[in-house]
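Hi R.,

Here are the chain sequences for the assembly we discussed:
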Amino acid sequence: MKISELSRTTGTPIPTIKYYIREGLLARGTPTATNQADYDESHVQRLRLIRVLREVADLSVATLTQVVAALDHPEARARADHVATALRSLSPEPGPISERSLDSVANLVDRLGWEVDEDCAGYQSLAAALTALEEHWPSPLTLDQLMTYGRIAERLASFEIPEDWNPSESANDALTYAVLGTVLFEPVILSLRRLAHVDRHRRLIADRL
Amino acid sequence: MKISELSRTTGTPIPTIKYYIREGLLARGTPTATNQADYDESHVQRLRLIRVLREVADLSVATLTQVVAALDHPEARARADHVATALRSLSPEPGPISERSLDSVANLVDRLGWEVDEDCAGYQSLAAALTALEEHWPSPLTLDQLMTYGRIAERLASFEIPEDWNPSESANDALTYAVLGTVLFEPVILSLRRLAHVDRHRRLIADRL
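And here is the predicted structure of the full complex:
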């Protein structure tokens, strides 16, 4: 398709498409004539992803570039590493990290039997979150309490990534979904937890009246 | 204690303390002499809360003011309403909301049997999150899938707010904890989910090699 059709299909203005190409966020089209190029479904998909990342996740172009670089990286050691890199780029720089919280994360991961590296998505941000808890929450979180959170996260992951998930079918789609899944589903989970808290508070108050 | 001790205890500079008092974020101390005032444990607690909200949650002073106003509101219809208001102030303005996603939330809440109002913390943000999913996720989320998320949220809430939670003991503490719990525990949950996803991806890839 021509750039004008790509623009219509995705709702992205032509100057913005050109800007994304210059910034390396979108592949060039296949040249067809002087100053013309042909775009395909992969361009449509990429523009949709960029739109979610900008509008829903509110990412800056700089962060967007990192996420997309992770998606486009040609030498995948393993696809899971790429998912990890892409997800890491989505998070803000984690805050300060204490030795003690790094130990807690290591113990937790060990006890859960998770195969995750220290530079993995979530590992550093979990340590930073535990450091903030240490400093600001009145009672320290025990390993047992952390395990409960860990088991709930496992349940989420098994539900969200089904047994028949097939990475070889379309590696790039899998990565795109991992990124989209993070951006789109995190607000669902957090909103539901807040709602569940309100319900739980009401219920416990009602029980005592 | 004098303002100098309050400053030392909480690590907050005296000009900042005075600024918070002017902005209504912190109660005035009890006057003891010309230009002197006495501060107590409630001032220490409040300054700690403000620090978490500024440093961990990265809230603006404007948002902080809303959260604190909800905490300080004297006419609590029910304490749960206050928790809801305080939590609502923590979230960014939710994005666009479709009729269809509002219906989904209503159906879900009904089926879960949750007692939550439409203006409740999480209700509008859940609808906004579902609207974003409708627009950007390839397959619509079914009510059954939403129910699974809802049940997981229930499990979190029952674990986090124990049966013997007693709102009458110290209402203001309960509110403070609700706010702190949101700010400090959300990153723990999201980080663990991301880690669990990485582990799940690795596991499914390994199973197929």
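The first strand of chain A starts at residue 30 and ends at 33. Residues 111 and 147 of chain A are 8 Å apart (CA to CA).

Let me know if anything looks off.

Best,
T.
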